[in-house]
Amino acid sequence: MTVSCEVPKQELPDAAPLDELLPATRRALLHRLATGQAEGRAPSMVGAVTRNGRMVWSAGRGDVAGETPGAETQYRIGSITKSLVAVLVMRLRDEGLIDLDEPLGTYLDTPEGGRATIAQLLSHTSGLAAEARGPWWERTDGALRPELADIFGERPQRHPAGRLHHYSNPGYALLGALVERLRGEHWYEVLRREVLLPLGMPRTTLGPEAPYAEGRAVHPWADVLLPEPAVDTGHMAPAGQLWSTAADLCRFAEFLLNGDDRVLKASTVAEMRTPRTEPQGPDWTGAYGLGLQLTRHDGRVLCGHTGSMPGFVASLWADPAEGVAAVALSNLTSFFGLVPVVTDLVRTVVEHEPRIPEPWRPLDGVEPALLELTGPWYWGATPFVLRLDADRALRLGPVGNGGRAARFRAEEDGTWRGLDGYYAGETLRAVRREDGTASHLDLGTFVFTREPYEPGGAVPGGVDTGGWR
């Protein structure tokens, strides 16, 4: 895939009036950020919201080097780094250089973790230990772990690969090493060329570049501060090394919502947003995809990631259904209240200013053979409706409350591939008569006919010749 390394313009064209937030919304956002910074006792905090391809609001509170921080002030972003590394891995997959279901050891000579698949490493189901060998890796120089083997302790494999979700920082160190092995250069240089520059994220760097916040810890019982170290973590860097800004992360959030053909197509980004770990219990609030966290908040499913390093916390959450995302960054150790700040920023925009739907427009150039497939179909005696969408896509839904719904993507061979639900990955085929008209639908061997248990040879097992009576 050829990617231009030219940095695009940082300011997008002026938005239409509907893209501007109302004064009441802006004040509500500022109030939530200010409350989070004050109640969280954070030395500084920056928040931002993006919608319809541009950052529509940002604000800073507190002090960084004697100034109020802003959208271009750098903070360390911790594990949001993992999502960026995951983008590099998915690019390798889309280029045909790796298979996500193959063991890592197929591509990388690694002392540990080689039996886990790349998908398991991306989704934290590899079973590897949560942390690296030796002293607290986030606060000690990477020189203590000079070789890849040095990141593993005595018991690196804590669970069988694929058994359950167990967050693993060393797992992402291995994914960074995989990128280096296949690209032949340092993972950050690959990231900068293939992702950061195309997306317009020049302030996302391996080390701090002014203006930046310095990491701080706040005493639990007194309003005093303690400086935190900011070390180069070496081989562990793909797990949480990067620094970034609210402006840069808004651009990354827009990418997570819509994709960018220069980096990853929208369907691949949607694949990253799909849960790979089973939600725990009926009231689940969190799951994990391919390098992305998922959370259910106020009835909405958000995607993104959180991050922390000594002296810093970061959070990014995007709502694909509403096209809204928010970011917050702070130079405070272990502030668990930052996630509610960000999800509340998203909620505030969605509730105050619901998304205006695109105007309805008719489809162009619909083939008569496709139009013929639309309308009612029956699985046995259960009624369904098949609808046609853009790009020859189909939607199958039950009439009433019973039955399985699914979306289908058109394939080059004239069939359709299921995208979700029970029929995800299954093939939908229109079976035609000799005259070309549609006889029935074959969906993963299930037969759908135009009439309930339509007489003829389509329904397996036949239909009683006496008919309905």
TrEMBL record:
Keyword annotations for this protein, in alphabetical order, are: Hydrolase
Query: Which E.C. number(s) belong to this protein?
Result: 3.-.-.-
Q: What is this protein called?
A: Serine hydrolase domain-containing protein
Please name the InterPro entries in this protein's record.
AmpC-like, Beta-lactam-related, Beta-lactam/transpept-like, DUF7586
Q: Note whether Hydrolase occurs among the keywords.
A: yes
> Superkingdom, according to UniProt?
Bacteria
Q: What class of enzyme is it?
A: hydrolase
**What sequence ranges are listed for the domain DUF7586?**
366-450
Q: Which GO terms describe its molecular function?
A: hydrolase activity
Question: Does the record carry Acyltransferase as a key word?
Answer: no
